[in-house]
Amino acid sequence: MSNRTNGQTAPVADVQLPHVNIDDLIVCLKYYVDEENAHIRIKDLAICAACDPKPCLAFCPAHVFETDRHGRMMVGYQACIECGSCRVACPFRNVDWRLPRGGHGVAYKYG
In what residue span(s) does the 4Fe-4S ferredoxin-type domain sit (predicted)? Predict the structure, then answer.
């Protein structure tokens, strides 16, 4: 199969990626939790309190962000799968996310 551009024929890959279920991948992760230093934190809790509809409760596949019974934002960084979605999805850029210190974090295994 090929694709014509500017009078030249460019090859087109005919590849299908395998179906991947995120829940199946999360179950296979190994966590090395740094109990002394959280690698995710909320910069300003007042911003979270005023935020509506709190998209952070939906965009994190590991449900790291939750609210307590008083509506305050809590961060369970120990469950983080380091996807980085919180860095880009918070409309107020109110999440401080760093890679965990060396030796901590998620150990991924493919296959």
Answer: 71-100
- Tell me, what amino acid is at 47? I
pLDDT of amino acid 17 = 67
> Which tokens in the block code for residue 63?
């449900």
d(CA 21, CA 37): 30
Q: Report how far residue 8's alpha carbon sits from residue 56's, in angstroms, rounded to the nearest whole number.
A: 46
What span, in angstroms and rounded, lies between the C-alpha atoms of 78 and 75? Answer: 9
- The one-character DSSP state at 78 is G
pLDDT surpassing 80 at residue 84: yes
Read off φ and ψ for residue 110, nearest 5 degrees. -105, 130
* Rounded Cα distance, 22 and 29, in Å: 11
- Looking up residue 36, the CATH number of its domain turns out to be 3.30.70.20
Round to whole Å and give the CA distance between 67 and 71: 5
Count of the separate structural domains present in the chain: 1
Task: Look at the block and give the residue holding tokens 């369970």.
Answer: 76
